[in-house]
């Protein structure tokens, strides 16, 4: 569609240029009809370009609007998702920590299961 408008413009311009050239060379030839055709072509080209411009202007706008609204929605969603993700990660870390932590059999302090001695009471936990 864009190409058509530009092609019309080019054809019109070429026609006008050609006819003006011919008319300059031959003023009595009466080729002004072709000039008018060229003007019409240019008019059609401009018209098409304007329509294309309006259409292309309209479509990105609406899509942009829907995108922004969608984007806003998405960003909110992703925000919620991020919050949930962060919460889940925290919970996972907590779980992992809890899994890796075990209460000391002597003082009941949560200590890493890998520790040989309780950091709280200093009792030996494993051989
Ligand atoms: Zn202890």
Short description:
The chain has helices at 2-25, 32-100, and strands spanning 101-103, 110-112.
Along the chain, the helix and strand elements come as HHEE
Query: Which outline best applies?
Result: rod-shaped
Kindly name the structural category.
mainly alpha
Count of extended strands: 2
Physical arrangement of strands within the biggest beta sheet: 1-2
What bound compounds does this protein have?
A: zinc ion
Indicate the multimeric state.
single chain
Tally the structural domains: 1
Number of helices: 2
The main pleated sheet reads as: 2 strands, antiparallel
Radius of gyration: 39 Å
Question: Unreliable stretches, pLDDT < 50, 5 or more residues?
Answer: none
Q: How is this structure best described in words?
A:
With 127 residues, the chain is mainly alpha-helical. It has one domain. The chain has two helices and two strands. It has helices at 2-25, 32-100; strands at 101-103, 110-112. Strand 1 and strand 2 (110-112) form a beta hairpin. Zinc ion binds at residues 104, 106-107, 109, 118, 120-121, 123.
